[in-house]
Amino acid sequence: MVSRLVINLYLKQEKAINTLVLQSHRTPLPSPWLDACIESVLSWSVLNDFEYRFMGDEFFDVVPAALLEKTAHLKVIATDLARLKWLQHFLVQGYDRVLWCDADFLVFNPAMFQLPNLPYALGREVWVQQKADSGALKAYKKVHNAFLMFQQGNAFLDFYADSAERLLAETTGPMPPQFIGPKLLTAIHNVVQCPVLENAGMLSPLVIRDLVAGGGRALDLFRQKSPERLAAANLCTSMTAAGELSDDEVTAVIEVLVTNRAC
After folding, report:
1. How far apart are CA 174 and CA 171, in angstroms?
2. pLDDT-derived band of residue 15, with 50, 70 and 90 as boundaries?
3. How are beta strands 120-130 and 137-151 bridged, if at all?
4. pLDDT, tens digit, for every residue of 37-58?
5. How far apart are CA 244 and CA 224, in angstroms?
6. Three-state DSSP state, 60
7. 133-162: pLDDT as tens digits
8. Distance between CA 262 and CA 250 in Å, rounded?
9. CA of 140: how far to CAs of 162, 177, 202, 204, 223, in Å?
10. How far apart are CA 104 and CA 11, in angstroms?
11. H-type helices in the chain, by residue range?
């Protein structure tokens, strides 16, 4: 007689979802704290028996040469397209589920960072900043592409990738860095309400500084406007590159998040 344990193990194997987690960044890494972020995603992948792949320069091989040239001054735009094409590629290769995590995406509470049983999901952005006219704090609720998840048979990835590539090809004027990333995703989301993994967030400089300080108005507003407490967050390398944050501040917030396992 087959034991209940054997049956349960068999069912668990039958239901296992073949998952790939994908990341990429130029090397050597420009900031030491990026190692901690990448390691957190790798460790979380191992914890969940997900396959993990980190890509180097070959990451841009899937972007048409004309679009690489067009976005040479803003490599982040080419990156936003490349991730979509690789996600498509690996679904075609037979993975049941593929994920993208930015290199500055930190999983600080791996036990609580659980993937939803949905065809696809985007990350949540609650961006707290000061108004230019009054200096008052305001939270802007959007979605982001620092975390993306797609399963076999989803109806969104091909549409998004095709729309992004077509916009890049047809646009002749200046393009903002987030053109086919958060800006396009948020525009689509505002109309169709895409599924969102609410605890896959993003932290603005003001929220990061409040976390390091142990509290503050920006953090209070962030928590008020966030649908859930975060288990993972994008730490915005672009803000350190622009001088909005220092490497020391990001290193400090990583320690706070990993220690407290909450945001």
Report:
1. 8
2. low
3. antiparallel
4. 999 999 999 999 999 999 998 9
5. 24
6. helix
7. 888 999 999 999 999 999 999 999 999 999
8. 16
9. 27, 18, 11, 11, 12
10. 36
11. 4-15, 33-47, 65-70, 75-92, 157-170, 182-192, 205-213, 217-225, 237-241, 247-260
